[in-house]
Amino acid sequence: MSSIEQLHEKIPDCAKDVRLNLTSLVADETLSPQRQYGLMLATAIATRNAALIAAMESAAAAVMTPEAIAAAKSAASVMAMNNVYYRFVHLVSNTMQPRLRMNVIGNPGADKSDFELWSLAVSAINGCGACIDAHEKTLRAAGVSSEAIQTAVRFAAIVQSVAVAIEAAGSTPP
């Protein structure tokens, strides 16, 4: 049984729709395997759910290079920082220099558009409108389709719902 199938088993019956959405996410063929599994890994990291992260990393390892896996992890990490900072800047209209290191954005170790898509999806989970807007504009300028952009955010929504469903199952009394 694959790690994602094991994850599927952890989703409680009260979250049947989440289980069905996870199945459709894995079966989705609209994105390249690197984009698809990079999205699943980066967004799993953004949920901070250990079981979900482990399952997605295991699945990603079967189709992604170690460099691409590192890039997906970098997208989640740098967006954890940027989403907090730029959400603050947006809310208070701050124009000061951020003084944050984010060199990985310029040289992510994977396809730049893939990294931007992963960053967009993580930003959606973290709720940073300024980052969502910036990544969406960069992706459109790079010729990434509206369908791919929407699919990335759909993946983020599904992965987040899997994390919540697993947490809900764990909080149910025996």
TrEMBL record:
Function of the protein: Antioxidant protein with alkyl hydroperoxidase activity. Required for the reduction of the AhpC active site cysteine residues and for the regeneration of the AhpC enzyme activity.
GO MF annotation terms: disulfide oxidoreductase activity; hydroperoxide reductase activity; peroxiredoxin activity
One Pfam family linked to the record: CMD
InterPro entries xrefs: AhpD, AhpD-like, AhpD_core, CMD-like
Top-level enzyme category: oxidoreductase
NCBIfam families: ahpD, ahpD_dom
Family indicated by similarity: Belongs to the AhpD family.
GO term, biological process aspect, one: cell redox homeostasis
Active site: C128 (proton donor), C131 (cysteine sulfenic acid (-soh) intermediate)
Tree of life domain: Bacteria
Domain named Carboxymuconolactone decarboxylase-like: residues: 99-169
Record-given protein name: Alkyl hydroperoxide reductase AhpD
Disulfide cysteine pairs (residue numbers): C128-C131
EC number: 1.11.1.28
Originating organism: Bradyrhizobium quebecense
Annotated catalysed reactions: N(6)-[(R)-dihydrolipoyl]-L-lysyl-[lipoyl-carrier protein] + a hydroperoxide = N(6)-[(R)-lipoyl]-L-lysyl-[lipoyl-carrier protein] + an alcohol + H2O
Keywords: Antioxidant, Disulfide bond, Oxidoreductase, Peroxidase, Redox-active center
